[in-house]
Amino acid sequence: MSFTWSTTLTVGPATTHSKGDKIILPPSALESIDKAHSLAPPPPPPAPDLNYDPTSWANPSPPSPPRNGHHARTPQDLPSPLTFQVRNPANRLLTHGGVKEFSAEEGKIQLPTWMMETLSLSEGDQVMVKYAPLQKGTWAKIRPLSADFLQVTDIRALLEAVLRSHYTTLTRGEMLKVHHGRQEFAFVVEDLLPAPGEAVCITDTDLEVEFAPLEDSMTMTSGGSHGSKTQSTVLRIGSDVVGQVAIDQYQRWTIDIPDRTSGITVHVDVEEAGDLDVLVSIKEPVTLQDHVWANFESLGPRTIVIPASDKDYSSQQDSKTIHIGVYGREPLAEASGSLTAGDEITYRIRVEHNDDASGSQSTATSSETDSMEGVEASVPNKGADGYQECTNCGSWIPERTMILHSNFCHRNNAKCDKCGLIMKKEDLPEHYHCDHCDKVQLG
Questions:
Q1: Each residue's pLDDT tens digit, 270-304
Q2: Rounded to an integer, what distance in angstroms lies between the CA atom of residue 240 and that of residue 238?
Q3: Is pTM beyond 0.90 here?
Q4: pLDDT tens by residue, 423-433
Q5: pLDDT value at position 407?
């Protein structure tokens, strides 16, 4: 049953909840909404059942006639959820939202901060509020405003959880802000279904979310400012350079290596109070989710050895540039120092040539390479507190990064059932054991 209700209210202080689209209305709004609902024409009576046989016990009883020609209503009959259109009459900007509660000061409405910014509203302005029944949404196309969201292992699950917990509606053109730890990712609602798709209700419905492709100029930001290009510092072979990276941020380096007859070793020494991850890739932007080699150690120097025989390293044809990302982490509780968000971690980085094709000198925990091949020596961090053993490659990984490591490792690495050697999946078909001797072909 449909009914109409609208009013003009004064914008009060922003709601204390910054997430989601829930507004706070005054108590009188609930009374007037209930009154409008009770006075609305009743829905048409159900069509008579032509198969009804009053002489048969097999048929249910006919519906009871309405009293005085009207269906009885109670406040509980109000549609759920209640959804509203919120419009700034000064500029005609509008959005939609659900209602959190009816506890605002009489004559006022409280809106989330993002909604006030979207509608260009300030405290004391007038706003029009109208009951707006919306169709259940089935599909939404979301456009990211930067590539920073790629830092999240499963951004789709995170976005769906945020929508389910904090949003009642989606409006085409509105901005969604998703928080993950201390980071914030912004998205724009680009399209909605069913048609006309200007706004939909997303409560108690299976909403399919599709991400619009990133624009060519949109890459991961170093300092967290949305939409800017990756800022990388050029590093030279043999140089010893001091860097600084904030917690939950990246600092990126590029190094030109046209001659791949020799491998490289990446050394990163960290101050005692700092913690960081070192990531290396053949393309940019290098991130926690998109890299080839990595070191997730929490203590001591970070070292990544990439031998000349590594296929990703040696077969890079389109570019001679290697990309390095240093990601700042909050230090372990037992580590000295008191670094918090915004503080910077100081470290030294150095890249050198090496001629060790086996990579056996590496102290890195590198799930994305075959650096474990032929290494039968002691496994770094085996049995250490805060570490877990990867069931696929056998590396001991910090617990905080195990999910990330495990997903990547099982997707890219394979283990020989006969000798236990770890290698890339594409190398497994070329790896076999002789049936008559102990020789093994490594491909």
A1: 876 678 889 998 887 788 777 888 888 777 889 99
A2: 7
A3: no
A4: 777 677 777 77
A5: 64
**For residue 290, what pLDDT is reported?**
75
Neighbours of 133 (CB within 10 A): 12
Assign 402 a pLDDT band (cuts: 50, 70, 90).
low
Please give the Cα distance from 38 to 36 (Å, whole number). Answer: 6
- Which tokens go with 44? 């048409």
Q: Residue 256 has which token pair?
A: 């030109």
What's the burial of 305, exposed, middle or buried (CB within 10 Å: 0-12/13-18/19+)?
buried
Q: How many residues does the chain have?
A: 443
Residues of the chain with CATH 2.60.120.380: 232-433
- What pLDDT is stored for residue 63 in this prediction? 55
In angstroms, rounded to a whole number, what is the distance separating the alpha carbons of residues 327 and 342? 13
Q: Which residues contact 364 (CB under 8 A, 6 or more apart)?
A: 278, 293, 294, 295, 297, 302, 303, 304, 305, 371
Give the number of other Cβ atoms within 10 Å of residue 431's Cβ.
17
User: 74, 211, 220, 231: which is closest to 143 by C-alpha?
Assistant: 211
Q: Name the DSSP letter for residue 246.
A: E
Domain range 232-433, its CATH number among 3.40.50.720, 2.60.120.380, 2.60.40.60, 3.40.50.740: 2.60.120.380
Fold assignment, 139-211: Vcp-like ATPase; Chain A, domain 2 (3.10.330)
